[in-house]
Amino acid sequence: MRARVRETVGLGKTLVNEPKSFPGELRLVVKRFLRTLWNARGGGLYACGYLVTFVWLEIRTIGGELLASESALAFVTEQFIETFFRLISESFVNSILAFVWPAFLLQWSPLWGALLLAVLYLAFPRYIKPPLTRWLFDEDAPGS
Fold this sequence. Notes:
Layout: H1 2-17, H2 22-40, H3 45-68, H4 72-99, H5 101-108, H6 110-137
Helix pairs in contact: 1-2, 2-3, 3-4, 5-6
């Protein structure tokens, strides 16, 4: 938790002091967060499905909040005030829903969902995992 608070404070300082470098810093923070989730779920197909589902649910949640707000300022004010209550609880629910991501595929279409899971199971180790792992861990490589 302390690391997250430090990262958030650091991002705020970067935004105020060096706005041009903010997108790069934000990218690194997001990649570290995704890497933590990836490692916590084992780094395989399940972890990838969890990440995709979690990010999709979070985008949908924040997008819904933004569309429900009267203005951008109202959105920022509401999110600042409600972050510790509603947004965190919704993120918790999203993380629980992301655990059952295969069920979303099967609910969408039992036949096509099962076929897609089978194809992903076969293709993931060879075609999806290597580039995804390189992207997630590229700043760990020497000389980057």
